[in-house]
Amino acid sequence: MPHGKYMTRRALGALGAGALAGGAIGATADGGPGGLQLPKEAATALNRLREGLDRFIKGSSKHAHADINWRKQLVNSQKPFATILGCCDSRVPVELLFDQGFGDLFVIRVAGNVVAPDVIGSIDYAVDHLGTPLVLVLGHSNCGAVTAALDEMRRPVRSVEPASMESLLRLIEPGIPKSLLQVKGPIATERAVEMNVRWTVKQLNASPDLQEALRTDRLAVVGAVYNLEAGTLTFL
Ligand SMILES: [Zn+2]
How far, in Å, from the CA of 81 to the mean position of ligand 1? Predict the structure, then answer.
């Protein structure tokens, strides 16, 4: 994974931001996975994702927000309602999965949906400049990056990988508990994928750059795993 130079707020601002965040979000509301209480706007964003996912699963996707008139409205600004940190995997196309169109989602895709300074910089931009109230960390079954990290951890001696690949794997490995190395079969990968999402969520929640937004309920971070075979999404 390329580790580009960390993007400053100033540089990000020059990318062409739309409306600024509309201030602190009000009291918590329901809508979070696993009974998690989310700020109202984050819960609304999550519900929109759930509704889109529902349409996708039922085969009734609308494919809205794609025509030329809609896109013209987006030329000078954007107001995506959620940020998605997903994997690069071609089998998990984010907008199709959630049945969203142009301008709806701020999407960061990197192998293994890992956290690196560049990723946090992008999320920080989405929160501070675009006002997205929700980050969804989206892992998926059969993730090649997570599988590679698990394999690497099981080797008695590390294999010789290019520095960039080594760097990527080392971002994933801390989230995989050693106890999982003894588990055999696909269940190990499945659990590693889930642990990797939890690890990413944990790091984002601990990021100093995002603390102010998290503390004032302008941002909530949730995790989910997409199952390639079933076509379903499980919130963690
Ligand atoms: Zn993947």
Answer: 24
Cα 90 to ligand 1 centroid, rounded to whole Å:
9
How far, in Å, is the centroid of ligand 1 from the Cα of 46? Answer: 22
User: Ligand 1: distance of its center to the CA of 146 in Å?
Assistant: 7
Reported confidence tier of residue 166, pLDDT bands at 50, 70, 90: very high
Q: What is the pTM of this model?
A: 0.85
CA distances from 44 to 81, 82, 147 (A): 9, 10, 33
**Closest of 63, 57, 108 to residue 84, by C-alpha:** 108
Question: Architecture of 29-137+199-235 per CATH?
Answer: 3-Layer(aba) Sandwich (3.40)
pLDDT for the residue numbered 37: 83
Distance CA 194, CA 234 (A): 10
Segment (H or E) for 106: strand 105-109
CA of 88 to the centre of ligand 1 (A): 6
